[in-house]
Amino acid sequence: MTAHFEYQQTGKSTELNAMGMREMQARAFEKRHSQYLLIKAPPASGKSRALMFLALDKLYQQGLRKAIIAIPQMSIGGSFANTPLSHFGFFKDWEILPQNNLCQMEMDEKSKVQAFKRFMQQPDERILLCTHSTLRFATEQLDATEFNDCLISIDEFHHVSAHEDNKLGERLDKIMQQSNAHIIAMTGSYFRGDAMPILTPEDELKFDTVVYTYYEQLNGYRYLKSIDLGYHFYIGSYFDNALSEVLDLTKKTIIHIPNVNSAESTKNKYDEVDRILDIIGDIVEVDPNTNVFTLKTVTGELLKVADLVNDDPEVRSKTLAYLRNIKQADEMDIIIALNMAKEGFDWTFCEHALTIGYRSSLTEVVQIIGRATRDCIGKTSARFTNLIAQPDAENEDVRNAVNNLLKAITLSLLMEQVLAPNITFRRRSEVTENETLPVGTVIVDDTVQRPSDRVMKILNGGKEEIMAALLQQETKAIMTNDVAPETLSEVLLPQVIKQRYPDLNEQEIEQVQVGMLQAMTIGQLGGVVNGEDLPEDAVIDGVAEPSGEYVVNKQFVKMGERFINIEKLDLDLIQAINPFQNAYEILSKSVTPEMLKTIQSVASVSKIAMTEQEALMLWQRIQDFMRKNNKEPSLTANYPLEKRMAEAIIWLRNEKRKRLSQEQ
């Protein structure tokens, strides 16, 4: 099962302006005076370089004393190496003194914390690079006020959490409350795999947001034209033909083996690496200086393979040093990894990210895909492949396996919506006469109820997080169509919005809900078509107002054989569409009948998942249905809403029995 996406190769996302900035970096630089800035941009979009521009401006134009950059792993510190920015038009070069690059110094964590504290006391030293761990321990030993007039930038910000057990998040909150420090947070995927909010609603309100989408990045590349997202299922061991079938030895590939605690793992990671090497070919030599393998394939080709699963510090450091200095495509062919080579890992020539085993974290999947989506000469296509163990009807853990499978399919759908043209929202009162609107602009009518700045900020910077939270909570029910579209839109979606943004009032929740439904429906229907690009024989609805005057936004979505103006999307119609249904249809067409039967049978015997709020909401529909049809809704009905109403009756009767029993 593979989803294929093609792009226009405009070159826009990689072009440099007069200061040497790419499109995303220039967009971030426009917000350089923000005290709190959140940059949400995909892997390989240039976030590290964007931070260099921002930090140097804050240090030398805005009067800040120091800039502290924290990254999750030492291995990706090369992204912040000294860079001659002035050669490309910027006013100053990026330079870190060797003693302040704590990601290249061989010392223990305690010594790094001492180096951090020394840096804070040196007035002439301006920039420091460290890991999240060092930043956390150092901030625990320093008073929050010592960060006055300093910039703290946290790369891969999704590692932070508002949860009370997340110490870095706790320290960051304290610094924000007790100092005037500037904060720049950067991430390729703002939603965490555990759906835990990263910032408290109060802190999140303080941040200005820069959003740069996967679609903008990939559509603006010069060389990379297409990306494929594929899911393949296997029975037994992934070594039994499955791996060899999806591993194309002509493609530059990163192979991520299963977590040792997962069902797909053999529990011996070193043995798995050896078996993968055997599949690739015969070992010709191992370079003692880099630990890089040279293997000879059955066709006689010589391939260079790096092993990042080996966690011997001395061996791994040699391999990482070699990988950091790769300049040519023929210097590496395949990298085998476990927990490395994900976020921030830069191997421009990578064409294929091959991941074995189900990944529950949406963030992790986005980061892994990003390893293959960097633009370079000679790379016209990229691929993400996930090998997943097929559920077995005889397995006692089949429920978990099926749920995991459905989540994996959902990830591809989520990525499809991330990869679609971005939908942005504008208030009608802010659109000037004859203004040309970017494709994908939804006009919000504010003549009766003006959406607050908070609502507009969420709609233009938080849609993916809401969608991810929705999928993580109700994946199985949504994917198997056990939730009616009306329930999804009227009950589950508002619940997620309330949980993520408890500060919103009821009117704001409804406005976010409607905007989310519009965005998801437009994505489901294939995106927006500009009026100038409509086919000559297009059948069009909603072009003009009853008065004959054209509406502001001449953009359309295709529904069936007709094109409907984006401003005229009927709300009742939107609420009746399940934006995730395509994923289940893909599943139905792509797997074996036996496997689909397993999924359906497990879903049918599962306990009905329903809240009292949903059941009461459905009760009026149930009564209307019974009056009209003279019968109760059926559990075997083809119509999803009728089936859900039947389940609501069972749930209500069961609740009534339980309450009567308790009373007795």
Top keywords for this entry?
664 residues; alpha/beta; Rossmann fold; 4 domains; 21 strands; 38% helix; globular
Could you please describe the fold and organization of this structure?
With 664 residues, the chain is of the alpha/beta class. The chain is built from 21 helices and 21 strands. A 9-stranded mixed β-sheet has the order 1-8-15-14-9-13-12-11-10, sandwiched between helices. Helix 1 packs parallel to helix 2, helix 3 packs across helix 4 and helix 20 crosses helix 21. It starts with a strand and ends with a helix. About 2% of the residues have low confidence.
Q: Which helices and strands occur, and which strands form pairs?
A:
Blueprint (H helix, E strand, L loop, with lengths): L1 E5 L16 H7 L6 E5 L6 H14 L5 E6 L37 H13 L5 E5 H10 L8 E5 L12 H12 L3 E6 L13 H4 L3 E4 L2 H6 L6 E9 L7 H5 L6 E4 L12 H12 L1 E5 L6 E4 L5 E6 L5 H12 L9 E4 L14 E5 L5 H9 L10 E9 L8 H22 L4 E4 L13 E4 L8 H7 L3 H17 L5 H16 L5 H19 L4 E2 L8 E3 L13 E5 L2 E4 L5 H5 L5 H10 L2 H13 L6 H18 L10 H24 L1
Parallel strand pairs: 2-6, 2-7, 3-4, 3-5, 5-6, 8-15, 9-13, 9-14, 12-13, 14-15, 16-17, 19-21
Antiparallel strand pairs: 1-8, 10-11, 11-12, 18-20, 20-21
